Amino acid sequence: AKDLVISGKTGFRVAVGDSYELALALQRFVSLTDAQRLEMGIAARRLALEKCSSRGQVEAFERLAKGLAPR
Fold first, then answer.
1. Please, which contacts does 9-13 make with residues 24 or more away whose CB atoms are closer than 8 Å?
2. What does the buried/exposed string (b/e) look like for 3-28 if buried means 16 or more CB atoms within 10 Å of the residue's CB?
């Protein structure tokens, strides 16, 4: 899901089929320090749990339903 990858924070986004851009992203990733890679992994996990957990899905559905309810 596009909203789970925040380039430079939770990973690196590249255009589909763009092997040059993919190579650059991989080069950026391997040039990160261990601490930076760990920080990126933690941020990615946190965002995935927030966006993809069953609780998060229920909360999103509730917000949607409240927005559709007659006033």
1. 9/40, 9/43, 10/40, 10/43, 10/44, 10/47, 11/40, 11/44
2. eeeeeeebbbebeeeeeeeeeebeee
The widest CA-to-CA distance across the chain, in whole angstroms, is 54
Helices 34-52/54-68 angle, 10° precision = 50
pTM > 0.85: yes or no: no
Which amino acid is it at 13? R
DSSP strands (E only) in 1-71: none
pLDDT in tens, 24-49: 999 999 999 999 999 999 999 999 88
Q: Are 62 and 68 in contact (CB under 8 A)?
A: no
| Residue that has been written with the tokens 């261990």 in this structure | 34
